[in-house]
Amino acid sequence: MSKHELTTASWRKSTRSQQNGACVEIAQARSVVAIRDSKSPDGPVLIHGLDDWRAFVHGLKTGTLD
């Protein structure tokens, strides 16, 4: 994912997020998911493959990460 793609990506956060800015945002481009801190949109970004992201979300939903 290029810097241009990160800049122009459609970043989303949970509708359950508070308005204090302490949120995680995600964006999907091609076959990866980018994750960043909403307080620092120009800061570091984690990049993960879609399979890893899906496994992570599945683990959250099923409680296997508790």
Automatic annotation (TrEMBL):
Residues 7-21 have a biased composition (Polar residues). Residues 1-22 are annotated as: Disordered. InterPro entries: DUF397 (IPR007278). It comes from the Bacteria. This is DUF397 domain-containing protein. Residues 9-61 form the DUF397 domain.
